[in-house]
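User: Please predict the structure of the protein below. I'd like the answer in structure-token form so I can feed it into my own downstream comparison script.

Assistant: Understood. Taking the following sequence of 639 residues as input:
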Amino acid sequence: MNIESLIKENVCVAIEKLYDKKVNTQQIQIKQIPKHLDGDYSVITFPFAKLIGKKPSDIAADIASQLMTQTQVLANAAAVGPGFCNLSIGDAYWTDFVKEVIDTENYGHHPANSETVVVEYSSPNTNKPLHLGHIRNNLLGYAAAEILKAAGYSVKKVQIINDRGVHICKSMLAWQKWGAGETPQSSKTKGDHLVGKYYVLFEKHFQIEYKAWQLSDEATVVLMEWLANDTVINRLRKNFEKKGKDTSEEALSIYFFKDVYKNKYFNEFSNLGTEAKNMLKQWENNDPAVRELWETMNAWVYEGFDVSYKNLGVDFDKLYYESQTYLSGKKRVSDNLESEKSIFYKKEDGSTWIDLSDAKLDEKVVLRKDGTSMYITQDIGTATLRFEDFKMDKMVYVVANEQDYHFKVLFETLHRLGHSFAKSCHHLSYGMVNLTTGKMKSREGTVVDADNLLDDIIADVKAESEKREKLSDIDLSEKEQIWKDIALGALKFYILKVEPKKTMVFDPQQSIELQGQTGPYIQNAYVRTQSVQRMVAEKGIKLTDYSSYQLSEVEKDILVLVHELPTTVLKAAKHYNPSDIAHYLYDLAKEFHRFWGSTTILDSDNPAATSFRLDMSKAVAKALQSAGKLIGISMPNRM
């Protein structure tokens, strides 16, 4: 039981003994006292004045006196001000607490509850490898799932693999045209990288075609028609002027072809676009040759993804595939259309819509006029299948903030379809992640590849480690594991310390520094807890009883932080916010480093002090390791 709960229970007992009145722990308000003031916690007595019929200050004095006779946990209790009972926790509580933490297998975890949560993350396309944006998604999803587990939920980790659509056909078509039979084996290339290469190659050839078309009379006509629209052009020029951009006709023409007309050209005029769309139709019609190529190239990608997931240390309980779930979504919509109280309706062109205007979400198309599905249709089907599989109470979608509106529409649609879990769906929306060099674009091949980024960070860690020569006495395989643990710790902490909703810039070099808010700084605190334990045997130090030991201020500060882990887990789970755990790790590591620099552990003149500090170090190690595991960070014994 944590100290806050213990205090609340004791206050309930005290009130009943003093006034013969029963209150429950939810009615007890306590708060931590700032460090510069005397005491650790303060019980607020104002809420009991009416119940008891006494002044809050008198109630505070009565409770203070009663608590000092009732419990051995407190060193002091005193009435302060008009209605506060300030409490100081006795050292005996903290020495017992240290032993309790050491003996707890999964410190910080809570008992299982009866609720099931499905967490969806990753959800890549099978036309390219994972990139830096996917890393943030995977790390957030995995950490959120592990935190929810620690909070007592039964958690299922899932992903929906986007394995169909014209973007997939672009890679397939490019391989057909220019691949010359290349395979991952023949080229010694990771499968997802190979397929991504052809996605970029398609875009390269499409741009050549598009730029050639821009010189045609047809392109000139559509450009002139657009430029003649004074309303659009004037609004655009004002927008450009605000951003300090060039507003010349040449600049507007470049913008038109790049951002306004590109998709229309692809869909209506492009030869390559026509071929890719025809391939998609062949896929939907189960053309044997197209399906075989699709299965072959997807298999290459899945093999590559598995390697990336293993390297990142993330996993899944079940995979769903868009090529299967979109059919379920179409059926769900079609079945509802036939019911008397359908939430969907058809327009004159044959497309199917839902009107969510009363929920301030406007109208949304769910089936095109040709009957093909939208992303929302697929998500309806996937959610239905998941409920059949898991009967979940909650569902969390880890998806970038570009899809905020989409998920509002999805959750409202699921609610109107009558799904009990719809009101408990949560979109864990996160901001973009960029490198110091700027944004990434998959089609142009300017993404930061996840595998390459991790390899680079490991190489940087190795170089720094070899400069310090701290691991010269261990074999290469052990060194390589330590380097990987440090690199992953650096990557994961740097990304997860930022609140999900914020856009962030990732600096690989800064992430591996040993000082400041970095993964290696936290891992080094753990390494210190282990090094001091190894020295006990080397020096032949004999441990003794420390039950009467009087703690220093820094020791108490450390244990207060250790004590906060279970509460921090619940807070992080409630808000689906792994940064709460990251900040906890940093705060605890910082306090332990401060203690390490100011206190003698092994050579103290007081044997009880040495014994206590060694056990306190074990408790810190337990908390660091347990919290680190929640966000996927391993704690090496050396570094």
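That's the full token string. The chain has three domains: 3-89, 160-434, 450-630.
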